[in-house]
Amino acid sequence: MAGRAVAITAPHAMVTTGHPLATEVGLRILDQGGNAIDAAVAVGFALAAVLPEAGNLGGGGFIVYRDNAGAVSALDYRETAPLAAARDMYLDSTGNATDRSLTGHLASGVPGSVAGMHAAWKRFGTLPWATLVAPAVTLAAAHVIDSSRAAAIAGDSARLGSFPASASQFLPDRHAPARGTLFRQPALARSLRLIADSGPEVFYRGQIADLIVAEMERGRGLISKTDLAAYQAKWRTPIRLDYRGYTVFSMPPASSGGVTMGEILNILEGYDSLPPFGSTALLHLEAEVMRRAFEDRNHWLGDPDFVQMPLERLLSKPYAALRRGQIDPARATPTPPVATGASEGAHTTHYSIVDAAGNAAAVTTTLNDGFGSAVTVTGAGFLLNDEMDDFATAPGKPNMYGLVQGEANAIAPGKRMLSAMTPSIVLDPAGRLFLVLGAPGGPRIITAVYHVISNVIDHHMSLGDAVAAPRLHHQALPDSISLERGGFYPDVLDALRAMGHGVREWSYKAHVMAIERGPTGWIGVADPRSGGAAAGY
Ligand code: DON
Fold first, then answer.
1. 368 CB less than 6 Å from ligand 1?
2. Quick one: pLDDT band at residue 2, thresholds 50, 70, 90?
3. Phi then psi for 454, rounded to 5 degrees?
4. To the nearest 10°, the Cα dihedral for 478, 505, 401, 319?
5. Lowest-confidence range among 121-135, 147-161, 344-358, 512-526?
6. Among 421, 449, 475, 527, which is best to mutate for testing ligand 1, by the most ligand atoms less than 8 A from CB?
7. Which residues are designated catalytic?
8. Under DSSP, is residue 171 helix (H, G, I), strand (E, B) or coil?
9. pTM value?
10. Would the CA dihedral through 28, 31, 33, 35 be positive or negative?
């Protein structure tokens, strides 16, 4: 896979996002004198227009930000369960989970993105708010749709077609727009114009709030005026850990990303060096380490405003040593079996930005599944999320990603559902900004971000190769290793099976968007598995 990714280099600044038009917007904002957060806000809104399956106004996300003086902040604008939500709201009379947490009005948490963008801008932005929303207004009014987006809409046309506002927005003349044609979203352009003029107020208390609540009433959803008025983005203390002299900052709960990846790195740090890339020994070790980190994740983690979590212990080096000691170098340690399958939604999106002053933003945002709940808010032109499925809708039973989670992540009114998003920033041993990265991919986000960090630090790969390199994923349950299809030798797969592992091949959609310090500036890589783009100046 070496040489598969295109690495862009630039002396001053770098933007890498899931869509070339959004990358262009980020660069333009930097060019206008904006900083990394200005660009991040503008990119966030632009993605709502050009990457509707994941970019959003109706979803949520996380930012890890490091300013050039070294201060690191973490912003949580994750959705919350509506106040009328209840623990068992997705169970049928036999106690089994229904698909109402995935499609339709009941699937949505209270959106956080507009509040999040505004909170980030208010604390760190320098350009006027309206300047940052303006490029998205233009793109929503009309832009030429590319082949990936045309295919994404076509692929989900059955779901989108079952909700009238989604059908009229995404399936003009009952068909997905053809690639190369102009895609117009007038209602979205209007909403963005309102947000440009009035800020989050119009979304959470004004005209847009009214449209969201009317949509909920139309489809018996739960989000109320009270829910919207109460929504708040929250600043959190970032996860910080040392890995072989490097410093890793990542997202704390309500995302599990930083804690779970931190536990993986801590356990692996105990080996002086790792076995060679692609070897059976490395894959076995990684699978066993990931299994243990996900066992802890799935048991302990949830919204920090609702549950007590032993984060200090989970991230301590002695705990890592304990977990390391439980690994049998010759055999898989089974996780108690549960019959389940797992998917990896194709649709969250990550972007990384470094500005010319050296400020860095890592941002991951999502509607959860591709096109979220498939419900577009009538008159407002944006999709609502289906993030409620990230809760343990039936504790002990698998969700869409096959994750089997416990009480800590059960549904409660006003609570944030646990995420796996892992926006991360790494400093080199001299304390300089070194890597900015993240990915979509549900639970595979955590292991994809881990792989890129370890590929660079442990396996001395270039950033392009580190991102392109084939990946392994294990999440405790289902109890099997996912290996990237075609990425590993068949005899290695056989050897892993002989050690007691379930092994299946997987096509990866965890598109890493990364930036690395290079010898003369910044190196940007958009995952070659994606339709994204890196660009700098
Ligand atoms: O927050 C989470 O962990 C999920 N809702 C992310 C979903 C996702 O990455 C889907 N796309 N690839």
1. yes
2. low
3. -70, -35
4. 60
5. 344-358
6. 421
7. 348
8. coil
9. 0.97
10. positive
